[in-house]
Design a protein that fits this description.
The complex is a heterodimer of chains A (318) and B (84).
Chain A lengths: L8 H10 L1 E4 L5 H10 L11 H8 L1 H6 L10 E2 H4 L5 H6 L2 H11 L4 E10 L30 E6 L11 E3 L17 E2 L3 E2 L6 E6 L3 E3 L9 E9 L35 H5 L8 H19 L11 H4 L8
Antiparallel strand pairs in A: 1-8, 2-3, 3-10, 4-8, 4-10, 5-7, 5-9
Chain B lengths: L1 E4 L8 E5 L22 H6 L3 E5 L19 E5 L6
């Protein structure tokens, strides 16, 4: 393995604003194959035959008997998944290890992992299935800007018909209680993951998401890995491109040139389709506060959203 | 039908939506559409839907002004249809 490749400041800001990083085809085919073989899932076809149904009904047991280890919650990641094991080799891929280190540090803990299996209609006698309700994982999480990450690893190609995970970018800073958001069937800007084999999404723990119906005759797999930080999540990414971006205000509303769309301020103040008019602006403020935490600089602001609220001359000397 | 609008006005744009069909003619589910059934609540009224509930406008408590959670502007509609 070579050295890890940490996120850039632009990627870190994108994560702060949207709650995820997409690493397309980051796992090579040889490792994807090893992972699928480790799950005893080399043949993903579902033909509805009695033999096939019997096999599918025992898939959970097959996975339990596989080389995927059961890990006590809170085990250091790199102790839990050793070098030479398929998962150990995956989390040590330079871009994956770099993303992990950039967000939850080098000494993060393995909270839990799981293999999600989505069968197609033949596994259910062609009875209609429904997609999973929108939810946040775990439970209500009141931590202020400290966060876990979850890796969503798709070891084979996922097409739209296979119903990959649906998620709503930018929902990660909303504090809700697990499936209390289930009433929302659809939101503008929602994404349905379809991706080539070996793609990994690195998600903030708070992102609203749900599994979608698999309409094909191929079993769909998703490996999910939750990681906790053990150190302050401050400037953990490659910050060589951070200098000069921290605290410089720029003209707002009346401007004479188009702002740099790749600047941190632009990324943090870019609305998402589902934003409400008023809370969309609070989203900007929360993103700014999140970024302040991530860079360890309470003076940072983007487009004056925080500064004007903090300007209170009457409080001076109070 | 539940519409989530961009502000408290019924003619604000739709940002989220859910459909539940009590006639069993169609099964709606999470993630089944990327475009809303109506661009705003007023268009739903024009199409025969009856608004029967809207979320209250709740003032923020001091110190809680910036906490974000559920969508704020929720409007419940119903439509009666003939079914055998």
């Amino acid at each position: 393995m070579t050295d890890s490749i940490r996120l850039t400041t632009t990627q870190a800001a994108f994560f702060a604003a949207n709650g995820y990083i997409e690493l397309t085809s980051v796992v090579p085919e040889s490792l994807n194959r090893r992972f699928i073989d480790a799950m005893n899932a080399g043949d993903r076809r579902e033909d509805g035959s009695p033999e096939n149904l019997a096999k599918l009904s025992h898939l959970g047991r097959l996975i339990a008997e596989s080389d995927i280890p059961a890990v006590p919650a809170g085990t250091p990641l790199y102790d839990a998944l050793g070098v030479g094991t398929v998962l150990g080799d995956i989390v040590r891929l330079p871009k994956i290890q770099g993303a992990i280190e950039s967000l939850v540090g080098s000494n993060c803990l393995l909270d839990h992992h799981f293999v999600h299996v989505a069968n197609g209609p033949r596994a259910y006698g062609n009875n209609p299935q429904v997609s999973q309700h929108l939810h946040q994982d775990s439970t209500i999480d009141p931590r202020v800007f400290t966060f876990d990450i979850q890796l969503f690893y798709f070891p084979h190609e996922v097409t739209q018909e296979m119903g990959g995970t649906r998620f709503v970018p930018g929902t990660h800073l909303r504090i809700v209680s697990e499936s209390s958001v289930a009433r929302y069937q659809n939101m503008l800007g929602q994404r349905h993951i379809s991706c080539p084999a070996g793609t990994v999404f690195v998600m903030h723990h708070g992102i609203w998401h749900g599994g979608e119906v698999n309409r094909t005759n191929l079993t769909r797999f998703l490996y999910k890995l939750r990681l906790n930080p053990t150190e302050p999540q401050v400037r953990l990414w490659d910050t060589t491109d951070l200098l000069g971006q921290e605290s410089q205000q720029r003209p707002i509303f009346f401007v004479k040139e188009r702002p740099d769309p790749e600047s941190v301020a632009s990324i943090l103040t870019r609305p998402l389709p589902w934003f409400e008019n008023d809370t969309g602006r609070i989203e900007y403020i929360q993103r700014i506060r999140f970024w302040r935490k991530l860079i360890g600089d309470q003076s940072f602001d983007a487009d004056y959203w925080a500064t004007r609220l903090e300007c209170d001359p009457c409080s001076f000397g109070a | 039908m539940v519409l989530y609008l961009a502000n408290s006005s019924l003619d604000a744009r739709t940002v989220g939506w859910s459909m539940y069909d009590g006639t069993s003619q169609k099964r709606y589910m999470p993630g089944d559409a990327d475009e809303p059934p109506y661009p705003n609540g007023l268009e739903a009224l024009k199409d025969g839907w009856r608004l029967f509930q809207a979320s209250q406008l709740v003032d923020r408590n001091q110190g809680d002004e910036f906490r974000l959670g559920h969508l704020k502007y929720e409007f419940f509609f119903e439509k009666m249809v003939d079914c055998d």
